[in-house]
Write a structure and sequence with these properties.
The termini are far apart. The chain folds into 2 domains: 184 residues, 3-Layer(aba) Sandwich (Rossmann fold); 90 residues, UDP-galactose 4-epimerase, domain 1, CATH 3.90.25. It contains 12 helices and 12 strands. It is globular, with a radius of gyration of 19 Å. Strands 3-2-1-4-5-6-10 form a 7-stranded parallel β-sheet, sandwiched between helices. By secondary structure, it is an alpha/beta fold. This is NAD-dependent epimerase/dehydratase family protein.
Length: 297
């Protein structure tokens, strides 16, 4: 299979590319910079230059391949409307190309914002609808394509996709703790975050593209929920700084943008995903990764 991957040089995307290549697939990777293009070419990836605002480029990538994995996102937490608009436009553009083709379109989704008071299940409907909602309502948009001849797939990733080289949420928490001189959890830290090692996440993406049926919602989650106070404690040990409780009202001021997310319960089940894909996570746990030095070097 020849797969078009947006975000091909990103954290999850680069590992997904490695997984596809290692299992005999070809990859066309979107790259917006010379450095990203060079890194992809060194792996044997065919490069398509452009970014999420280049809708004609996205269209060409989807047209010329056997399936699309859309992992890129602007991640503008200061101006989320920018990210939301770009995400919706990208998914609409790729989806229009694939209508009636039977080819797969997998997009990245998240687990925050459901507000259920329990772990999110694969059967739970994402409340984000419309262009002004989180991620531009892209999850509902792409699932609707299942009835129009697209093998549409949503991969809801754990908030902590961890591993050596991670520059995402856990790295942001480490940076905040280093700046404060203390590792903080929000409130009592009893709320939980799902977690998955990046190599397990990449394997789930590949398995989904290879065979998951249209309309599948997948939870790329290895650990259902790690208490955030345990995450804060592990970061405190790694940096040799104290651990404290941050008032929820002060979370954003104390921890930065990551404080808004760290104060939420983002736990999720994964039984249906494991059964559907035959996927069994084998990578290190979040605690094992935080016991090493890669996050603190």
């Amino acid at each position: 299979m020849r797969v078009f991957v947006t975000g091909a040089s990103g954290w999850i995307g680069s590992h997904a590319v490695d997984e596809f290549l290692a299992t005999g697939h070809e990859v066309l990777g979107l790259a917006r910079s010379d450095a990203s293009a060079a890194a992809l070419e060194a792996k044997g990836v065919e490069v398509l230059r452009g970014d999420l605002d280049d809708l004609d480029v996205l269209r060409r990538g989807a047209e010329s391949t056997d399936g699309t994995v859309h992992l890129a996102n602007k991640h503008d937490f200061v101006h989320p409307e920018v990210s939301n608009a770009a995400e919706r436009a990208a998914v609409q553009t790729i989806g229009e190309v694939l209508v009636g083709s039977g080819r797969p379109l997998l997009i990245a989704g998240g687990l925050a914002g459901f507000g259920l008071g329990r772990p999110v299940a694969e059967t739970d409907v994402n409340p984000a609808v419309g262009p002004d909602s989180a991620r531009g309502g892209a999850e509902r948009l792409v699932l609707d394509l299942a009835g129009h001849g697209v093998r549409s797939l949503v991969a809801r990733f754990a908030p902590t996709v961890h591993g050596t080289g991670d520059h995402g949420f856990v790295a942001a928490l480490v940076a905040a703790a280093r700046a404060r001189g203390a590792s903080g959890h929000v409130g009592d830290g009893a709320h939980r975050w799902a977690a998955v090692h990046v190599t397990d996440a990449a394997r789930a993406v590949r398995l989904a593209v290879e065979g998951a049926p249209a309309g599948s919602v997948l939870h790329v989650v290895a650990e259902e929920g790690v208490p955030t106070r345990d995450v804060a404690a592990a970061i405190g040990r790694g940096l040799d700084v104290p651990v404290d409780s941050v008032d929820p009202v002060r979370a954003a001021a104390e921890l930065g943008w990551i404080g808004f997310f760290f104060g939420q319960d983002v736990s999720a089940t994964n039984d249906r995903t494991r059964a559907l894909l035959g996927w069994e996570p084998t990578g290190p746990t979040l605690a094992e990764d935080l016991a090493g030095r890669s996050y603190f070097a």
